[in-house]
Known about the structure:
By secondary structure, the chain is α/β, with parallel strands linked by helices. It is 22% helix and 32% strand.
Amino acid sequence: MGNTAIKVEHLSKHYKLGVINNGTLLKDIQSFFARLRGKEDPNGKIGSNYIDNSEGFWALKDLNFEIKKGDRIGIIGHNGAGKSTLLKILSQVTSPSEGKIRINGKIASLLEVGTGFHPELTGRENIYMNGSILGMKKSEIDRKVDSIIEFSEIGEHIDTPVKRYSSGMYVRLAFAVAAHLDSDILIADEVLAVGDAAFQKKALGKMNQLSEGEGRTVLFVSHNMAQVRNLCNKGIVLKDGRIVRQDNDITKSIDWYLGRNPDGELIETTSWHNDGSFANENFCPQSLFVVDESGNTVTKALEYGKGYRIRLDFDTEKPDTNVDFWISIHLGSEIIYKINMPQDFTYKKGQNSVDFVLPQGSLPPSSYIVSLGSSLKNTKYILNPYNYDLTLFMMIRDNGSKRLPFCAERRT
């Protein structure tokens, strides 16, 4: 395959809803051998191996892409887009329904926290077991075990059964094992979201070292666009199980995913409307958009120095005063400005509307991402602003007005 690490051709994955087999062992065996021979399923629909009807759905449909050795690919998309399914197929955890995959090299996978760990075994014992599952020889593990323990930073707990580990300790140990595997391809699915900020930075640095320094291929799935931008150089965007965009520049993929014009400067201010994909009985956003001083919706660039508000419409089935919400304004990957919910706001059952006032001249001309955040009594996110689950784009145009100093006290 030359310089190609992974080649995917017409890859599809179909799931049957509520059905796990054909009903009899004989039919299951017939379907199994038909698949091995590349023949049509004798128990399926004529002309198709898998039935596509109300009893099933395509988690992935007709994916085609090629990944070169040393590429760092960010696979992004909303929940349910098919990202994890794709990585499980590439990791050979599950098989495709249709299509071909060609892999040139050894794969190390981090799909879920604690995958391959036995809760009754100690951390040290799980290093050997997990390393063996990933393809490491005992002599290789013996040689690297001290480095793995040091990297995981849980040395004092290494001889404790992992059932007593926190989720953060799980991911530290699992990542340390996978990172020290002599693999050609590293696959990571959102696992770093569990670790603390310091370990996330350390893990991303290790992944960069593996890719840039050692030439390994990395496939990375995360809702944290800052992490994706910092680690990856190319992007694949999935939506409803299909590839909707591929770029040799990860910034273009992220911009497209978030709604910005990826081929040039943002020329419009966007809005967000709930298409039914988000629901919460305490706080259910319906729309987020920018209005001017007269209350008219703004769809063009904002004029610097003029007054604008960001309007949020949301529904509440069960009003809860413990629910907090705010907007965060991002410049690049950094949140530079935050506006909290109005102090005099009171929840009411049904429809609610609230305005976040943008102080005139507080933001210099540029393109910004506005994300909505919400939490329950500051203990649990309903909407994590860092995940960019609910965003709009806002461009402020330089119209020659005198610049005001930036309001540093409003930074977060």
